Amino acid sequence: MCKLIASLLFLLCAAVLLCTSGVQAAETFGAKIEPGTTECFTEMLEAGGTLGFTFRVTDGGSFDIDATLTTTAAPPTEKFLELELFHFNEHFMAQRDTVVTRTLNEWKRVSEGSHSYTSPSVTVTKHGMPEEVTVCFNNAFSTLSPKWVSFTFIKRDVLEIDPDGLNKVEAQMEKKLHDIGSILFNLTIDANRLRLEGDADRVKVDVVAKTILLGLLLNVAVIIAMAGYQYIVMSRFLGRHGQNVNLRVTTK
Question: 190 pairs with which residues across the strands?
């Protein structure tokens, strides 16, 4: 009973830490990538936020796929005052609508992969506009086998502390919780990677079990066919041998 209560208290404390440390719950998605096609998925990331991405091929063919992770964002401005002109000045309106796409990572014929990305903060971009993080799964090299892919997005909020209040107890607690969130963020990514690996292993075990069962059924069918064939051959042989014995007895 004491162990059960201790386990419940531990889970409650872990849940509280996850909620207060800025680590959002992992969002797991699944997609079926048809042969010769490409599927893309997008997640929004606020300025200064961190995104953890993990994927794994759980079924299909040789359990491999091509993947590309990109980010699309507006270029940074030089001054904070330029933000006021984003909606009134044509030059800055064009700058607001201009986006730049960068490739964060790329995988070729792999069964799994992961990446962690932190977007530039507001002090760097000066505008604080969010970014679009896009992942594209490409199964163009396959002609027959579709691929089933499971992937997760884990987002971590930005640390927001009043610079004038760093000496306050509340600010120190928030900073401490954010530091703990860094550890929980990495642990969550590792836990999701292990979970996806377990899902893929279960699929492989099911495939192996079905293959073994099919092999056993095939062996049983072959044994039955051989037994039937031997029975027919032996019946014919014994029937002819019995006729020859009767002929010899009659002749004598």
Answer: none
pTM: 0.61
The CATH number of the domain holding residue 47 is 2.60.120.680
* Strand pairing report for 131-138 and 65-73: antiparallel
In the prediction, which pLDDT does 205 show? 76
| Cβ contact 133:99 at 8 Å | no
Domain total of the chain: 2
| Under 8 Å between Cβ of 159 and 178 | yes
E strand intervals along 76-224: 100-110, 112-118, 131-138, 147-156
Q: Does 193 reside within a domain?
A: no
Residues 132-165: tens digit of each pLDDT: 999 999 999 988 889 999 888 888 766 665 555 5
Evaluate whether 184 touches 23 at the Cβ level (below 8 Å): yes
> CA 25, CA 20: separation in Å to the nearest integer?
12
d(CA 106, CA 225): 53
> 21 lies in a domain?
no
- Residue 84, CA atoms < 13 Å, CB-side half-sphere: 3
121 with 50, same domain? yes
Q: What is the CA angle 46-48-51, rounded to 5?
A: 70
Give the pLDDT confidence of 91-118 residue by residue, as tens digits. Answer: 555 555 677 889 999 999 998 888 989 8
| DSSP letter (8 states) at residue 98 | -
